[in-house]
Design brief:
Length: 223
């Protein structure tokens, strides 16, 4: 059974979608805001997201950009915005499809099935370093053939860094993605959790080779 996250601040549309999808065998989660959508996607892995762009807190395009920092889940935009610029921005940000309101349920379901088929063909990568291996599909980390036990927060930080390996991930990106916008300045949280991850994963935690600090900016994952 495929799991669908429906993100829309119009209660009537959200409930109608939920009823129709549940009747067709999908399991559903719902969110009324962009931040709630990001939180739901992080806490409850889903197979596809239906996303409105006109949300009360974050613009839908920004939600897509943030999701794409750590997730390849298929995203079908469902929006009242008909302009070509809006479509281009959403697709360039990482959306898989774009459906305009008002919409036909049969068409939306067909687009949803197509997005799900595309999603199943994309294998989540395995990230290997000299010291440890991160399996992003199974959410497992191994070191010297042994499974490493991580807390949910440790995993969320490591996953975000691993999915952006080689690139700088700023303090703000890590804090808002893992803890939420209210924690955007709590850099001490990151120092504590990165120290824990290094003790568990690095051969020499005091001189890390893979979980690198970019002073004053953020962190970088190096294979």
């Amino acid at each position: 059974m495929a799991a669908v996250l429906i993100v829309d601040d119009e209660v009537q549309i959200l409930r109608a979608l939920q009823i129709n999808l549940n009747a067709r065998g999908y399991s559903t989660l719902t969110a009324f805001t962009g931040q709630s959508a990001l939180d739901q996607a992080a806490e409850h892995p889903v197979d596809v997201i239906i996303l409105d762009l006109g949300l009360p807190d974050l613009d839908g395009v920004e939600v897509i950009r943030r999701l794409r920092r750590w997730s390849e889940v298929p995203i079908v935009v469902l929006s009242a915005r008909h302009g070509s610029d809006d479509k281009i921005q959403a697709l360039d940000a990482g959306a898989d499809d774009y459906v305009t309101k008002p919409f036909g349920m049969d068409e939306l379901l067909a687009r949803l099935r197509a997005a799900l088929r595309r999603g199943t063909t994309a294998d989540a990568p395995i990230v290997e370093t000299e010291s440890f291996t991160v399996n992003l599909a199974t959410k497992q980390v191994t070191r010297r053939g042994m499974t490493v036990s991580l807390t949910p927060t440790e995993w969320n930080i490591l996953e975000l860094l691993a999915r952006n390996r080689g690139a700088l991930v700023t303090h703000e990106e890590l804090l808002t993605t893992v803890w939420g916008p209210a924690y955007a300045n709590e850099t001490s949280y990151l120092r504590v959790y990165l120290a824990q991850l290094r003790r568990k994963l690095e051969t020499d935690p005091a001189n890390p080779r893979h979980l690198l600090t970019e002073t004053g900016l953020g962190y970088r994952f190096k294979e």
